[in-house]
């Protein structure tokens, strides 16, 4: 049976981090937690929580690199674990935020959908935008439309990032993924689409609350980065520093 592993980036979530990690832990066999240079007590709370939990990989960065890079750290560790045969080809990875916007109660359903549907490669949750302001919904629809065009694959909510994918895909992802600012979900949608991978983006999840992070101007950076990644995909230009990034990530593991 495939093992289940979560990736959770963390930045200044001291008020909720223990609760969120505890809820995630109930649904997975292993956890990859990435502290992205938190300036509050998040790191200390994670280390204290980790003492009473097994199967935890804790990556910690001294400086804040941004959520997209924190996710990239998680992808790099999955790649390392797969390459060193600590993970199998079809072990399942789920990504979710640490602030509670991705409700861990949906984890089991997302895994179950992937396991039952043999015609898909990835499951990407589609968010219920009831709690979101109109401008956020408008921006999401625009980015999803552009990503779908570039990917050659129709998405409903490309920016969700609440995703299940098998472990072997992450080494393929790292060949092109840059992780610039808030580009993560947009880039990943384009890369996986270019690789002809099928994504089920129909599983609707409710978002407990809306927490604004990105600004309208970030949309331009997201699209620009996506176009840059799309061009490199078309030209077959892979990242040059993937191996060193994986090795550096492994060195950041906290015992």
Describe this structure in words.
The chain has helices spanning 17-25, 42-50, 67-83, 107-116, 134-151, 169-174, 184-194, 218-235, 242-251; strands at residues 4-10, 30-36, 56-61, 92-95, 122-124, 126-128, 163-166, 199-200, 204-206, 253-254. By secondary structure, the chain is α/β, with parallel strands linked by helices. The chain has a single domain, classed as Alpha-Beta Complex (Spore Coat Polysaccharide Biosynthesis Protein SpsA, Chain A), CATH 3.90.550.10. The radius of gyration is 17 Å and the shape is globular. The mean pLDDT is 94.
In short:
This protein is α/β, with parallel strands linked by helices.
Biggest β-sheet, characterized? Answer: 8 strands, mixed
What is the CATH topology descriptor?
Spore Coat Polysaccharide Biosynthesis Protein SpsA, Chain A
Q: What global shape is seen?
A: globular
Major beta sheet, strand line-up: 8-5-7-4-1-2-3-10
- Number of separate structural domains: 1
Q: Could you report the average pLDDT, rounded to the nearest whole number?
A: 94
β-strand amount? 15-25%
| CATH architectural arrangement | Alpha-Beta Complex
- Rg from Cα: 17 Å
CATH class: Alpha Beta
Q: How far apart lie the N and C ends?
A: 27 Å
State the secondary-structure class. Answer: alpha/beta
**Share of residues in helices:** 40-55%
Instruction: Give the low-confidence spans.
Output: none
Secondary-structure element series:
EHEHEHEHEEHEHHEEHHE
CATH superfamily: Spore Coat Polysaccharide Biosynthesis Protein SpsA, Chain A
Oligomeric status of the shown chains? Answer: single chain
Number of helices: 9
Number of strand segments: 10
């Amino acid at each position: 049976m495939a093992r289940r592993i979560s990736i959770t980036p963390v930045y200044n979530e001291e008020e909720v981090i223990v609760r969120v990690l505890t809820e995630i832990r109930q649904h997975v066999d292993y956890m990859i937690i990435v502290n992205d240079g938190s300036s509050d007590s998040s790191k200390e709370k994670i280390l204290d929580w980790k003492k009473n939990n097994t199967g935890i990989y804790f990556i910690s960065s001294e400086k804040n690199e941004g959520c997209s890079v924190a996710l990239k750290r998680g992808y790099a560790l999955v790649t390392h674990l797969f390459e060193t045969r600590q993970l199998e080809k079809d072990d399942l990875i789920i990504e979710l935020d640490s602030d509670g916007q991705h409700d861990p109660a949906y984890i089991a359903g997302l895994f179950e959908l992937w396991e039952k549907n043999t015609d898909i490669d990835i499951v990407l949750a589609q968010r219920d935008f009831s709690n979101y302001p109109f401008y956020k919904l408008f921006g999401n629809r625009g980015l999803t439309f552009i990503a779908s065009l570039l990917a050659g694959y129709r998405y409903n909510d490309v920016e969700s990032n609440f995703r299940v994918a098998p472990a072997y895909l992450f080494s393929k992802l790292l060949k092109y993924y840059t992780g610039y600012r808030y580009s993560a979900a947009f880039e990943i949608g384009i890369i996986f689409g270019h690789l002809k991978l099928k994504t089920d983006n129909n599983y609707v999840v409710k978002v407990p609350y809306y927490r604004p992070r990105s600004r309208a101007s970030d949309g331009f950076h997201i699209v620009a980065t996506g176009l840059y990644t799309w061009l490199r995909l078309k030209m077959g230009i892979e990242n040059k520093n993937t191996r060193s990034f994986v090795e550096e990530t492994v060195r950041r593991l906290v015992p």
